[in-house]
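Assemble and predict.
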Amino acid sequence: MPARIYPSTAVAVALLLLLVCQAAADSVSGAAPDSHSTVASAEALASVHRSGAPHVLASAVAQQAASPGPGEHHLGSRPRRPCATEAGQAPLSLSSPSAFMASSLTPTFWWGTATAAYQVEGYTTANGRGASIWDTFSATPGKTYNGESGEKADEFYKRYPADIKLMQSLGVRHFRMSVAWPRILPKGTGTVNQAGVNFYVTLVDALKAADIQPYVTLYHWDLPQTLQDSYGGWGSSRIVNDFAAYADVVFKALGSRVTYWTTFNEPWSFCFMGNANGQHAPGLTDRAVAWNCAYHVLLAHAAAVKKFRAAVPGGKIGMNINSDWSEPFSSSSQDQAAADRKVEFMAGIFGDPLYLGDWPASVKQRVPNLPTITSDQARDIKGSTDYFALNHYTTLYVKDAPGAYGLEGLLDASASANGPEGLVGPQADSSWLYTVPWGIRKMLNWVNNRYHPGEIYVTENGCDVPGESGLALPEALNDTFRVNFYQGYVQAAAQAAAYDGVPLKGYFAWSLLDNFEWADGYAKRFGIVYVDYSTQARYVKRSARYLANLFGTVGSA
Ligand code: GBH
């Protein structure tokens, strides 16, 4: 039995499960994305809701409650559950989805698309923007693919009105975006650049006028270069007050317009890839700096949240925590403990202090000179998020391996895509990304069981398609690999909600647009919309139509 059932979410998610099953027929059969069959599946669902809803939904929810859910940290992978329609429901009849769209279910589940300032905006010197560590890093030979940078990116800075119309045409009602610190404070501190503030105010107002709710991240990796130069950026405790002051400027400018916020996107990624293996800006290779970064992120988060409570009453704030799922390679207790450690060294580095008040015990045992979270600091950090924001992409198998190191340091564990029965899942274009739908269900259960956060949003999930950059446009737009990825992950996430009682409230696809993929430049495409970088033209991929049908019918307030 799930620990708790959230009735409205459970009902919406039951519908989502039904719809994924319906939509699956389209993606598997290879029908055109906007063909009658997809529309028909949406209409069928609408009909279920209006006529047979109470019965069908009640049985779906009852089935969830009765179904054995993970409930524990580790489970063997299980066969996909049958769709409700496969499980003996009456055939669905067709009718208009509009009644469904207007129904009381629509406020319960968000779907949205996600972006980040440096990856999409371009215009990196316009209107007083200062340099960020990503401008500098990209300009350093050998650091990014082909020396590419975010200088042009998707020109979202100017093209956002058309991109908002595009989102409207897809029925996107939630949009995750980030604010570029060096647009607001070109030198990181001091004088506010009003033109930068105005850009985000105008953007947010344009989104709202289009009935798209902005979901704002304060820091998606573009630290003002001045702060890196003057004191070492996230390696120094001086960053804490500077970040809180920056956050306060943004809270005051956008707080009356935006309800949902996050302070940091993926601090694991920017602390460890930026400072331990040097693959991201600022390109340092000093693990001690990476751990100081993690510590200062937690302190800066807590300091910013204090400002937030005063400036944005009624607002909700979190932190986008990324984690791969770690599946034990075998059922041995050693491999299970190793897999636990691996997740603790990723999600737990930030999740444990935020929800439990200290670093995970496994981290404290293994990391030399780990900064101490004092009891005063713990008081501010613990309980400072209103919901859990999870960025999740992939899963690896983990073995006990005494003495083995990971990027974070001594893990006594090793991770690989090769499992006891072969590869964990189909590999995407990025070498680190494998399609493993069941991993998101387990990851969501881990978060829920360890932290009981009350609300969980998946704030990034998506993939690139093998070889996509080399494909001609028509082939790139027919992205069945990505459709299958989304179908699998959304279904598994919905199962976590419906069968396991995970309070999943929304889901953001990464990304709206192909964009600047950090060290991989423009070679990797994560968009559900294709961008031709020579013309800046946008082309809707099949995956966007798939998601639009899927989520549009379930509803999104
Ligand atoms: C996210 O990071 C970012 O938030 C987003 O900006 C980005 O565009 C998107 O996902 C797609 O990459 O083999 O040790 O080098 C993704 C999370 C975590 C993926 C670390 C790469 C590298 C593992 N990243 N992972 S390693």
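The chain has one domain: 7-59+85-185+197-205+212-226+265-554.
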